[in-house]
Structures are given as structure tokens and as C-alpha cells.
Amino acid sequence: MALTRLDQLYRQVILDHSSHPHHHGTLEDATNQVEMNNPTCGDVIELQLNLADNRIEAIRFSGSGCTISTASASMMTDVVLGKTPKEALALVDQFSLLVQGKEPGNLDDLGDAAILSGVVKFPARIRCATLAWKGLEKALAITNEIKMNERD
């Protein structure tokens, strides 16, 4: 079955984020960090962020993961940088809906991560795609910057 041009473009964006992930590495002055793993496929991601003035001032991730996990982490770091914890958690919720095949609202809010909507066709890959996003949610909950039940 041949890939359409759009499918090829989506695949290339995913491969680019996986091969050359954005915000990859470690933060010396992280205010929040969490390590997440996906025992199903062995993905391990350490997520670090620096919160200042109620914004995600810096964010990095490291570890080892599959193409989908790494690409999703890269895309997630791009979209949440500069956001408040509340805004970032709203994006986590949108992404979760997206990979479940539900209507997430404005896809533009998710940036390149909107491309991962096709993961719904591969249930085993949903955990790969959501690992970094769940890590962000956990990292933000640790700080008491925002209570999990304060979401809109």
C-alpha cells in the first residue's frame, strides 16, 4: 500500500523529530523533574523543566525511546515552552483526546504533535506517544504550582 504525499510528510516530520529532537539534553537548574518509563516497549524518558514567573521557562528531556516516544517528547517540549502550568496541562488533555481518536479542540494548539493523531490506529503505540506528556503532567503536579483539579 503506497503512502500518500500527506502520509509521507507526516512520517518525515515524525522521523525528523526523532532523529533530531528539540530540547533534548539536561537542565542544570531544573525546578521540576520526573523519570517515566513504558515497560511495554522499554521507553525511558527523564523530563526536566524550569518554572519561573509561573511559566515553563526551559524544558529538556533525555533517555531512550522508540521513534514515536522521542518524536512526541520533542513535539511536546516545543508546544509547552513558555506556557503556564495551567495552559500546559490543557495541552496534555488535548493531546490525550487526540491519540484516543476524540475531538481535541483546536489542533493548531498542539503544533507538530497533531500529526500523532494516527497513533489511535495502533493502540500499543498510544503509551509511547503519551509518555512525555504524562511526565509533564506528573512533573507539574509535584511542584504544587497548580492543583490537578483546577483545570478548566
UniProtKB/TrEMBL annotation:
<dbReference type="GO" id="GO:0051536">
    <property type="term" value="F:iron-sulfur cluster binding"/>
</dbReference>
<protein>
    <submittedName>
        <fullName>Nitrogen fixation protein NifU</fullName>
    </submittedName>
</protein>
<dbReference type="Pfam" id="PF01592">
    <property type="entry name" value="NifU_N"/>
</dbReference>
<feature type="domain" description="NIF system FeS cluster assembly NifU N-terminal">
    <location>
        <begin position="10"/>
        <end position="128"/>
    </location>
</feature>
<dbReference type="InterPro" id="IPR002871">
    <property type="entry name" value="NIF_FeS_clus_asmbl_NifU_N"/>
</dbReference>
<dbReference type="GO" id="GO:0005506">
    <property type="term" value="F:iron ion binding"/>
</dbReference>
<dbReference type="GO" id="GO:0016226">
    <property type="term" value="P:iron-sulfur cluster assembly"/>
</dbReference>
<comment type="similarity">
    <text>Belongs to the NifU family.</text>
</comment>
